[in-house]
Design brief:
heterodimer, A: 237 residues, mainly alpha, Arp2/3 complex 21 kDa subunit ARPC3, 2 domains, B: 290 residues, two-stranded antiparallel sheet
Amino acid sequence: MNAKKLINSKTAAFFSVIFSALLIGAGVFLLKDRRYMLISLGIVFLSFVPFAMIFEGRKPRAREITVTAVMIAIGVVGRAAFFMVPQFKPMTAVVIISGIALGRETGFAVGSMSAFVSNMLAGQGPWTPWQMFALGLIGFISGIIFTDRNFQSKKILVCIYGFFASFVVYGVILDTSSVMMTVYEMNFQTVLSVYLLGIPFNLIHGVSTFLFLMLIGNSMIRKLSRIKNKFGILLCN
Amino acid sequence: MYNEFTKCHPFVNFFCFLFVITVTVFFNHPIITAVSFAGAMIYGITLLGSKILKYFFLFVLPLCLLCGIFNPVFNHQGMTILFYFQDGNPLTMESIVYGGVSALLLASVLLWFVSFNQVMDSDKIIYLFGRVVPSLATVITMVMRLVPMYACHFKEVYRLRALEIKKLNIYRRIRISLASVSSTTTWALENAVFTADSMTARGYGSSKRSFYSDFVFTNRDFILLSVIILTAAVFSVSAVMGGGYAMYFPYIKMGDNHLLNMSAYVSFGLACFLPVFFNVWEELKWRFMK
């Protein structure tokens, strides 16, 4: 069971890399202007397709679906609760916790779907696909790196990971999207200056993720493990 | 004004927005961008009234100004040099024009998404994607219901806990909030398992999932969808043949085939103003039939 899922996940990653490479090739040779935009949007969508196919293809049981929905809802409520403070949101922390406790595929689903659903409330925009991709990636990576066994001892590592995930991964992906939306040439100067403009926002986001992981990480992981033990939920990854 | 377009079939709404927003993002011909901006602004006003102006001046305009300044300062390509900055880099006319066009482009995309958010509610999105990704659509449906439920439950728990304490200072408030969050989470997770068992008991997963929807594809939806597909086809053909083409660097060059350009503008403009035209048409029909 486990080995089969591993192959699935790896095959998905393999196919997205292959298709992305083809897309980059086609974009570089066929298109002149606005090619970065088209290529990167294409990559974002291509990376969703395999994961959506995994999620649909394994025919998730009702318990998997409801637990995933609960984690997404907690993230969305968290984002809505802190709507007054820009960038200071617990959503990324919740995504990381779900990735750790429920595995990488569920982490990806929770990340991308919480970005999508919270934008249904806050307003969709050209940023939606990138937010979905960035948060999904963060959930996926956290599921690869960490497990929920003796979380207490690794807590500080997870917090540091949370800071860098929101500061670097999320920040770079979102800022790159705004560079592509606005400027003609992606050269070192323009990219650097957009990143510099984004640093305060990304810093707040990183610090908030760090703090929320410190604050609720342990108890959330404990609650999720308890639920898994109590009701025998096995999210296969 | 009536917003009949909102009541159309989700396919009509979605494909209209898909065509308009895709073209707006990927074509930087000044006339196409201007048409798109006008369409977005007018439709936004009919949907939201003066609220859209507030959004435009407070949020969209500063971003666009930033984009308009950003381009000439950092992009030094182009043949027509106006003057040199202190560090020796030139300021070119082409980069100023490009900055203006891309600022307008950014504004149009942001404004189109305002209308998108108004028209495409969660029902329509779930209807559209429910068939393609049924499990994810189920998850989204559940989340839309869970979010208000958790907010409500949290408030209930918080109020009850706050009753015990005579004086509420900020420190105690935070402590009670955290305790309430914790108990709400536990409750939510246990509830999820019960919900899941109930779903299984009622036959979830035993056969293909069906969806409830009260959207009916009527004749007018058929007409609107055909108009959208027709304009998209005309636009695609003329764009492939070189209509609506614009190049800014090293010098400004636009597609010079008049017929192709006109067919691109007209077909795209028709799609941009389709929601507004349709609303006006329905309004007139209503007036005359009364």
